[in-house]
């Protein structure tokens, strides 16, 4: 039982290492790409559709509805990034039902990479939708003294994304390892089933948090420094 896929080394030359995290990360990406190609190569717009196409449409529609619920008005604009995040984490945890497969999300390097993707996407979509000036002014709201705290919050939530996902995946692995010593026949099977459920929940949480962060950065609002002007009374209205 390995607590992290980083511990499994398949090839090493000097400081270069090919561990299970890299191998299984590329395996998950390859499965997702091949699945998308095989399902979408013969799409049918008629009523008679394949089960795979119906399943894919259900997943896509559900993800778009969740993106809209997070506050993003144009879900198609974010579908590629946020949908890929959810499907990668979900597939990586779902494939753990196969023996000898190690979920790459059990490595801190993978979760940090996913969190950095969210960290970069937030200013990208924020500047794209609001403009550079309004996006930068948001860090100084409601007052300029909040600037360092807003910057710290931006960095801390990125770290929290990575540590939350890694901690939940690692804790499940450690519990299974302990139960293997106590009762190697019954409890590990139950915990493996619960681990699949936990992995899907973590994929959903990561997806929702990324959507909320992007929605907060992309919301078009006027800076608080602009004062509202009261309308002047009409001269024709005389008492």
What features would you describe in this structure?
This protein has one domain (5-37, 55-218). The chain is 66% helix and 4% strand. The protein has helices at residues 20-40, 51-69, 75-94, 108-130, 132-137, 147-182, 187-218; strands spanning 9-13, 16-19. The chain is globular.
Q: Structural class of the helix and strand makeup?
A: mainly alpha
Can you count the helices? 7
Order of helices and strands: EEHHHHHHH
Low-confidence stretches: 222-232, 234-239
**What is the count of structural domains?**
1
The radius of gyration is: 23 Å
Strand content: under 5%
Major sheet strand order: 1-2
Strands, total number: 2
- Average predicted confidence as pLDDT: 80
Described by the principal axes of the CA atoms, the overall outline is globular
Helix content: 55-70%
Amino-to-carboxy terminus distance: 87 Å
Q: What secondary-structure arrangement, pairings included, does this model have?
A:
Blueprint: E1 9-13, E2 16-19, H1 20-40, H2 51-69, H3 75-94, H4 108-130, H5 132-137, H6 147-182, H7 187-218
Antiparallel strand pairs: 1-2
Helix pairs in contact: 1-3, 2-3, 3-7, 4-6, 4-7, 6-7
Give the gist of this structure.
With 239 residues, the chain is mainly alpha-helical. The protein has helices at residues 20-40, 51-69, 75-94, 108-130, 132-137, 147-182, 187-218, and strands at 9-13, 16-19. It starts with 8 loop residues before the first strand and ends in a 21-residue tail after the last helix.
List keywords for this structure.
two-stranded antiparallel sheet, disordered C terminus, 7 helices, 239 residues, mainly alpha, 66% helix
């Amino acid at each position: 039982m390995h607590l992290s896929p980083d511990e499994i080394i398949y090839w090493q030359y000097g400081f270069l290492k090919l561990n299970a995290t890299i191998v299984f990360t590329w395996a998950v990406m390859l499965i997702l790409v091949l699945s998308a190609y095989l399902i979408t190569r013969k799409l049918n717009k008629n009523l008679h559709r394949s089960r795979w196409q119906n399943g894919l449409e259900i997943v896509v529609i559900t993800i778009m509805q969740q993106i809209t619920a997070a506050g993003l008005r144009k879900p198609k604009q974010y579908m590629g990034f946020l949908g890929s995040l959810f499907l990668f984490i979900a597939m990586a945890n779902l494939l753990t039902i196969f023996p000898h497969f190690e979920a790459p999300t059990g490595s801190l390097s993978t979760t940090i990479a996913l969190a950095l993707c969210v960290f970069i996407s937030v200013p990208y979509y924020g500047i794209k939708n609001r403009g550079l000036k309004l996006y930068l002014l948001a860090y100084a709201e409601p007052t300029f003294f909040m600037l360092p705290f807003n910057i710290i919050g931006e960095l801390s939530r990125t770290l929290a994304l990575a540590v939350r996902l890694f901690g939940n995946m690692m804790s499940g692995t450690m519990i299974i390892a302990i139960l293997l010593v106590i009762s190697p026949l019954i409890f590990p099977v139950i915990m493996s089933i619960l681990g699949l459920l936990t992995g899907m929940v973590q994929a959903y949480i990561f997806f929702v948090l990324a959507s909320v962060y992007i929605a907060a950065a992309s919301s078009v609002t006027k800076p608080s420094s602009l004062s509202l002007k009261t309308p002047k009374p009409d001269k024709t209205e005389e008492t």
